[in-house]
C-alpha cells in the first residue's frame, strides 16, 4: 500500500534512525578528484562536500562524461562508453479520472498489431509509430488511497526511441498523448477524455535533463549479454578510487529489484 513512494519513505525513516544526514533539492554538478581518487562532490550552489567515499546512483555514463571535468580515460574505457547501446525511451502519461473503471486491472499490457515493426522502429529506425503497444497501470485497483473517493488514477507507459532519435518532444509529446488517449478510449477506458480531471506526461527529455540519463534512456544501458554482469559499469569504479555506483546502469541492472540488489552488493564491497 502506498506504492513505490512507500519504499522511499521507508528508506528515509531508516536513514534518519541511523543518523544519516539527507540533503534535498540540490544537484551534484561535479565530483572532486585528487589524482585518481574521488574526494567529494560540488553542488549546484558551488558548495564542496568532502568525502572518503562517494556512492553515486546517477547514470554512470553521464557521470563519467559530464561530472568529472571531461577527464580523459584510457582508450579501452572510452571505447566501452562509446560502443555501449542504450535502452529505449519512455513516454509516460499520468492522469486522474472522476470516473472509476472498476473492470480495469492493476496491470494491463496492450499489444499493437505490428509488434515486431514497433520494436524495429524504437531500436533500429528510431522513429515513432502509430501502432503503439502500451502498459496501463491502475494502482487504485489495489489501493484506493492513491486517488480521491470515487476517482481513479493511472499512468500509461509507451515505449519510444531514446533521444538518439532527434525527435522534438515539445511537438511529439502532445501528439502521442492524443494518440494514446484515442487508443484507450476505443478499448479499455471508454469516454476517457471527458473524465480526466488532472494529467501530465514525461518524455525522454525529462529522463535526459532531470534524471541525467544518457540519451534520455529509460533503463540506462541495454541489458544485453555483452553489457551484463562484469561488462556493465562496475559497482566499484574501474577508473577512480573512492567512487562507487549503484542503480540501473551498474551491476546487476535496471528495475527496482535490480537497483536495490546493486545497493546490497555495494554494501558488501564497502
Ligand atoms: C514509468 C516507469 C515504470 C516502471 N515500472 C517498474 C516496475 O514495475 N518494476 C520495476 O522493477 N522497475 C520499474 N521501472 C524501472 C525502475 O523505476 C528504474 O529502473 C529504477 O528506478 C532505477 O533506479 P536508479 O536508482 O538507477 O535511478 P533513479 O530512480 O532515476 O534515481 C537516480 C536519482 O539520481 C538523481 N540524480 C541524477 N543526477 C544527479 C545529480 N547530478 N545530482 C543529484 N541527483 C542526481 C535523479 O534525479 C534520480 O532521482 C519503471 C520505470 C518507470 C519510469
Report on this model:
With 270 residues, this protein is α+β, with helices and mostly antiparallel strands. It folds into 2 domains: 13-85 and 219-269, 3-Layer(bba) Sandwich (FAD/NAD(P)-binding domain); 89-209, Guanine Nucleotide Dissociation Inhibitor, domain 2. It is 31% helix and 21% strand. It contains 8 helices and 10 strands. It has a 5-stranded antiparallel beta sheet. β1 and β2 form a beta hairpin. The longest helix is centred in the middle third of the chain and has 18 residues, at 169-186. It is globular and about 60 Å long. The model has no long low-confidence stretch (mean pLDDT 93). Flavin-adenine dinucleotide is lined by residues 27-28, 57-58, 90, 92, 157, 211-212, 218-219, 247-248, 254-257, 259.
Features:
alpha+beta; Guanine Nucleotide Dissociation Inhibitor, domain 2; five-stranded antiparallel β-sheet; three-stranded antiparallel β-sheet; 21% strand; binds flavin-adenine dinucleotide
Précis, in short:
With 270 residues, the protein is an alpha+beta fold. The chain has helices spanning 4-17, 60-66, 75-83, 115-125, 169-186, 192-195, 204-209, 256-269; strands at residues 28-34, 37-43, 48-50, 54-56, 89-97, 107-110, 134-137, 152-160, 196-202, 243-245. The chain has two domains: 13-85 and 219-269, FAD/NAD(P)-binding domain (3-Layer(bba) Sandwich), CATH 3.50.50.60; 89-209, Guanine Nucleotide Dissociation Inhibitor, domain 2.
Q: Provide the CATH top-level class of the largest domain.
A: Alpha Beta
Output the strand order for the largest sheet: 6-7-8-5-9
What distance separates the N and C termini?
32 Å
Number of helices, counting only DSSP H or I runs of 4 residues or more = 8
